[in-house]
């Protein structure tokens, strides 16, 4: 699984399946995950696979379930390691059953089958208040 698009498809399947431990395994040991538009309770930057794993474990306890990640557009760049995707996350609140959609633009650098950089520009104004859920 060396092609960046294969890695991203595996990431999609793991997130929809709720397997956040395997999701964290997709990252390189020195990976960086950035969320420049992070909302309350979410870090703007995580450094290293273990930090990503710990955050994923905490996120797994939140009352949300990703039911789909719909890719709107994939942009390949002149750098074969860098892929930009536009997507919509479809999420269900497990406490109420209500669903919502969150658009985002995500930038990835994937090297040797591992995510080394994941920058998530999430449409934070589309998120409900998860602390109240």
Automatic annotation (TrEMBL):
Superkingdom as given in the UniProt entry: Bacteria
Domain SnoaL-like: 13-116
Gene3D superfamilies assigned to the protein according to its UniProt record, in alphabetical order: 3.10.450.50
InterPro entries found in the cross-reference section: NTF2-like_dom_sf, SnoaL-like
Name this polypeptide is given: SnoaL-like domain-containing protein
Lineage, broadest ranks: Bacteria, Bacillati, Actinomycetota, Actinomycetes, Streptosporangiales
């Amino acid at each position: 699984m060396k092609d960046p698009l294969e890695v991203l498809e595996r990431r999609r399947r793991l997130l929809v399946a709720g397997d956040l431990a395997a999701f964290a395994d997709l990252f390189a040991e020195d990976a960086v995950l950035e969320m420049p538009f992070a909302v309350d309770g979410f870090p703007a930057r995580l450094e290293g696979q273990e930090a990503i794993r710990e955050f994923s474990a905490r996120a797994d306890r939140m009352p949300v379930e990703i039911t789909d990640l719909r890719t709107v557009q994939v942009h390949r760049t002149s750098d074969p390691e860098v892929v930009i995707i536009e997507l919509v996350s479809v999420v269900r609140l497990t406490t109420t059953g209500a669903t919502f959609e969150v658009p985002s633009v995500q930038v990835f650098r994937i090297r040797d089958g591992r995510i080394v950089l994941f920058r998530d520009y999430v449409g934070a104004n589309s998120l409900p208040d998860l602390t109240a859920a």
